[in-house]
Design goal:
Elements (H helix, E strand, L loop, with lengths): L2 H15 L3 E5 L14 H5 L4 E3 L4 H13 L3 E5 L3 H4 L3 H8 L2 H4 L9 E3 L17 H5 L5 E3 L4 H13 L4 E3 L24 E4 L4 E5 L3 H14 L4 E5 L2 E3 L3 H11 L2 E8 L5 H12 L3 E6 L8 H6 L4 H15 L7
Parallel strand pairs: 1-2, 1-3, 3-4, 4-6, 5-6, 8-9, 8-11, 11-12
Antiparallel strand pairs: 5-10, 7-9
Helix pairs in contact: 1-8, 3-5, 9-13, 10-11
Length: 324
């Protein structure tokens, strides 16, 4: 099935199993703009799949109230860019309630905030803001790269007792892949996407596929790249990343988000402090995403970018005996 269908199936199964699970947001009744809610209102009714006004602050605010009174809302923001209209409800209400009230209140909501460049949609619809939310204590941040993980991680997010910022990619909805029945994926656990020996490449979301393509090409040039799909931005799988980087002796972190102050810096700093090995980052330039295709491409991190960076990194480090 595809990425959207996998998420829809996970949500449907959660709603059948638990009457406390509800969905709300703009256009969810007609299936969502990417088909990620298709058929749910017909099965569960308008009282559990709730169409809302065009007011992001109202949507998240209502979901926080629902969660505090015992429901498990799944909130649709359409794209992460629109969630900025609800940042107070996310950062000052959902994230902080459990701490400020000594655990008396819990906010088990899932906010679906799709990230990434959306072709031809320009600067206000193409941002990757995962580092913003990883910075906020109290939030769990997730970024699935495959249909199987969009199924397994959404199911895990709905079961989480804390607010989850669930960041699907705007250009992965049609991606098809095998989704094993009852596939599970734990929050905070990365996936080894490709083993390697010369370089550890850590990434997430859509760029996982670019990293795998780059690793395949690098292998033809004699460079073995290990690819880790982080899956959860916070908490992130320090153990897997550190173990891999210790084996390969080099780390590169890549993300579609702007490189400056991106979450890759946290991973790179941790590995440098813990292991003292060479680290590199690959991210977007600090520019808005342009509408024109040439400007949009200038903001993308491509498989070719990652290939060149990987080859250069291993070549310049001096610890690779020969590169074809």
């Amino acid at each position: 099935m595809n990425y959207a269908q996998a998420a829809c199936q996970a949500l449907a199964e959660a709603m059948r199993a638990d009457a406390r699970v509800v969905a709300l947001g703009e256009d969810v009744g007609r299936g969502g703009i990417f088909g990620q809610y298709r058929g749910l209102q017909q099965e569960f009714g308008a009282a559990r799949v709730i169409d809302t006004p065009i007011s992001e602050a109202t949507i998240i605010g209502a979901a926080v109230g629902m969660a505090l009174t015992g429901l498990r809302p799944v909130v649709e923001m359409r794209v992460v860019d629109f969630a900025l209209c609800a940042i107070d409800e996310i950062v000052n209400q959902a994230a902080k309630n459990r701490y400020m009230f000594g655990g008396q209140g819990r906010v088990p909501l899932v906010a679906r905030l799709p990230i990434g460049i959306w072709s031809g949609s320009a600067a206000q619809h193409s941002q990757s803001l995962e580092a913003w939310f990883a910075h906020i204590p109290g939030l769990v941040v997730v970024a699935p790269a495959t249909p199987a993980d969009n199924y397994g991680l959404l199911a895990a997010a709905i079961q989480c007792g804390d607010p989850v910022i669930y960041m699907e990619h705007k250009e992965l909805w049609g991606l098809e892949g095998e989704v094993p029945p009852q596939h599970t994926a734990a929050l905070g656990k990365a996936r080894l996407a490709r083993p390697g020996t010369d370089l550890t490449l850590v990434t997430w979301s859509k760029l996982v596929h670019g990293a795998l393509a780059a690793a395949g090409e690098a292998a033809q040039q004699g460079v073995s790249v290990e690819v880790i799909d982080l899956r959860s931005i916070w908490p992130w799988d320090r153990d897997m990343v550190l173990a891999s980087a210790a084996r390969t002796g080099r780390l590169m972190v890549a993300h579609e988000a702007v490189q400056a102050a991106g979450f890759g810096a946290e991973i790179a700093a941790t590995v440098a402090e813990e292991l003292g090995i060479p680290v590199r980052r690959a991210g977007a330039p600090r520019i808005p995403v342009g509408y024109a295709r040439t400007l949009e491409d200038a903001a993308r991190v491509s498989a070719e970018n990652l290939l060149q960076a990987s080859i250069q990194f291993v070549s310049s480090d001096g610890r690779k005996r020969s590169i074809a």
